[in-house]
Structure formats: C-alpha cells, structure tokens
Design a protein that fits this description.
Butyryl-CoA Dehydrogenase, subunit A, domain 2; alpha+beta; 11 helices; 50% helix; 3 domains; 3-stranded mixed beta sheet; 4-stranded antiparallel beta sheet; Butyryl-CoA Dehydrogenase, subunit A, domain 3; single chain
Length: 393
C-alpha cells in the first residue's frame, strides 16, 4: 500500500523530535504569523516593490526584534529559537526575514555588543518595540568582500567627529532612525551611532531590483556628518566589530534559506499531486519524483546543519568557519531547490501566483550578502589548510 503525501512529505526524518516544546512553540507562533500576514500579501508587495512597514510593530509584538539579545528589551531567546523563527519568516519571504536580521542581528547587536550603557539605554528598548528602526553601514561601492579597504573616514574635530564617505546596499537605511556606520580613523576602524536626521546623512533606495523587492536597500552618502564624541561605539576597534555582527546575521541565514527551500518544495509537491498530464498526476512520473526526493534530502540535511550550528552557538562553542559551512551549504542548496521546484510548475512557475522563482530570485541576494560563496569557501579553506588564500597576487 502506498503511503501517499503524509507527514513524511514534510519531515521525513522526524526532525521535530530534536526540538524542545518551547522551541517548537516559537516556531509555530511565527509560522502562524507568516500564514496569516505574509502569504496572502507577499505577491503584491513583491510586484510593487513595497516593504510592508505595518508588519514592524506586529513582529515586535511577537518578540522577533532582538529576540536573541538579553536585556534592554531583548527577548533573551536561544540561538535555536531565533533560528527557527528565521526559517519560518523566510518561508514567507527573504525580504521580511532580512528586516529582522538587519534590525536585530546587525544594528541592535552592534549596540548591545559594543555600545556604552548610555547608547544601549537610548536605542535598544525602542528598537525592540519597533518604535525605532536601525541600519548597518559597512559595505561600500568599492569595498564589498574587502571591508578593510573602506574609504569612509571619521576624523576628530574639536569635541566631536566628522564622517565623510559612501555606503552601498544598506538595508532599511531610508526608513531607519539610527545607522551604525563603520569608518576608518587614525585609531583603526571604528563604529559610530548616527541618528539619520543628522545633517549630511542621505539614504537613497536602490531601484529597480530583480531580487529582494519586498525589502529596502540603499546608497548612503555621508557629507561631513558631524557627531559628538560619545557617538563612537567604545567597546571595539578594528574589523572584529562588524565581523562579529555579520556572523550573527550569517547564522540566521543558515536557517532562513531552508525556510525558502521548504516553501518551494511544498509548493511543488502540492502542484505535482494536483496537475495532471497524460491522464495522471505529474507526481507519478519518475523524473518528478526524483526532483522531489532530491529536495527532501537537501532540506532535511540543511535543517540538521542549522540545528547543530545553533546548538554549538547556544553552548558558546561556535567558530566562524562553522558559520561559513552553514551559510555556504544551505544557501547554495536552497537556490538549487527553488529552481528545481520551479521546473515542476512549468510555465506557471514564472508567475507570482507561486513562490519558488520569487524565493530563488531573493536567494541570489542572500547568496551575495553577508559574504559571497567565494568568501565563505576561502574561510573554510583557511580553516582546513591553515593557509589564507584571500587577496590577489
């Protein structure tokens, strides 16, 4: 007797048994939110390149903003709980998950890790409630994978600082209230807390885009932005500061990519069971079954990678090269899954009625930001061989 589409269709290895009741409760709350608020609307938001600002307070009420940070309004949730939330959000859309990542893992994390007590008190509680939005300015037009070559400079001027330079691909910048800007100084690279209403700060959305259309990415111009002395983040100097924040965001991507992959697979499975050709559901054809099986293999393995990474993070044992393992593998496999799912949908798969091609397009951005495939490959290569292969000859 054939099983048909049972729970094995979605959790072949019974991976839910590896999670605690509290972890599953977090997942299910976010899944319900995605089903009710994102799925019915995402095609429209994507088509019109609209970021749904009305969701910000709703996500804050769910405890998603700074949910893995402790104190100052943070949720104090575990890394695994945070990861599960990111997986469910990205099953809705990568752009929505990116908002939570920029707000919590980048902007809030920078202040929480390296800010003064005054900075934490001033910004974090209202960022956790969604009353204030943050952004994180590291990448520049000519400094993406090589942030050490950034041209943005901050110079001391009397009792303060003056920032001059440009940043590119900065999520949320045009709607942000505060920006964490990384700049070169005579003391090395430093981070600065910059209210976005400061004279000389300009954020311009990058349009049109073929990816992340329900999200916002911007160019930032810093034209002699004058800041007080206490605008600098006192807790760090050098690239280890922004890299620590990037690793927080990269960790969330490991989970999020599997959400996009899972949603694409489930969409393709439903379609294959309903769509009939040559008098039979296309799910009955061997080639279609092979595609579905390959998707299940990689999704289940990817969730296991994410879970082990999360357990290591919660235990305080996670190394940067292990984050690179997960980011490289899970995003790469998720793109392949989304593209394969699109082929099962045939011509209908290029419409916004179905999610796989939208997910695949979004994941092209996810594949690039927070470290390209090439960068994470070289991070792993250095860990394996002990030889750094970054940079040209």
């Amino acid at each position: 007797m054939e099983l048909g589409p049972t729970e094995l269709s979605h959790d072949y290895l019974d991976l839910d048994d590896l999670f605690t009741p509290d972890e599953l409760a977090v997942r299910d709350r976010v899944r319900t939110f995605v089903d009710e608020r994102i799925r019915p609307n995402i095609a429209g938001w994507y088509a019109t390149a609209t970021f749904p600002r009305e969701l910000v307070k709703e996500m804050a009420d769910l405890g998603l903003l700074g949910m893995h940070l402790s104190g100052y309004g943070g949720g104090g949730r575990s890394a695994v709980e945070y990861g599960l939330a990111m997986m469910e959000l990205e099953a809705g859309d990568s752009g929505i998950r990116t908002f939570v990542s920029v707000q919590g893992s980048l902007a809030m994390s920078a202040i929480a890790k390296f800010g003064s007590e005054e900075q934490k008190q001033q910004w974090l509680p209202r960022m956790a409630t969604g009353d204030l939005i943050g952004c994180f300015g590291l990448t520049e037009p000519s400094a993406g994978s090589d942030p050490a070559s950034m041209a943005t400079r901050a110079v001391r001027d009397g009792d303060g600082w003056v920032l001059t330079g440009t940043k590119r691909w900065i999520g949320l910048a045009s709607i942000a209230d505060v920006a964490i800007i990384w700049a070169g100084t005579d003391e090395g690279i430093r981070g600065f807390v910059v209210p976005t209403d400061t004279d000389g700060f300009t954020a311009t959305p990058i349009e049109p885009k073929l990816s992340m259309r329900a999200s916002i990415q911007c160019d930032i111009t810093l034209d002699a932005v004058r800041l007080p002395t206490d605008a600098v983040l006192p807790g760090v100097r050098g690239l280890k500061g922004p890299f620590a924040c990037l690793n927080e965001a990269r960790y969330g991507i490991i989970w999020g990519a599997m959400g996009a992959a899972r949603d694409s697979y489930e969409t393709a499975l439903r379609y294959a069971l309903e769509r009939r050709q040559f008098g039979t559901p296309i799910a009955s054809f061997q080639l279609t079954q092979q595609k579905l099986v390959d998707m299940v293999l990689e999704i289940q393995k990817g969730v296991l990678v994410a879970l082990q990474t999360g357990r290591l993070k919660d235990a305080g044992k996670l190394r940067p090269e292990q984050i690179s393992f997960g980011k490289l593998n899970n995003v790469r496999e998720a793109i392949a899954i989304c593209r394969s799912a699109r082929t099962i949908l045939g011509g209908n798969g290029i419409t916004l009625e179905h999610s796989p091609l939208r997910h695949a397009d979004n994941l092209e951005s996810v594949r690039t930001y927070e470290g390209t495939d090439e960068v994470h490959t070289l991070i792993m290569g250095r860990a394996i061989t002990g030889i750094a292969a970054f940079g040209g000859a």
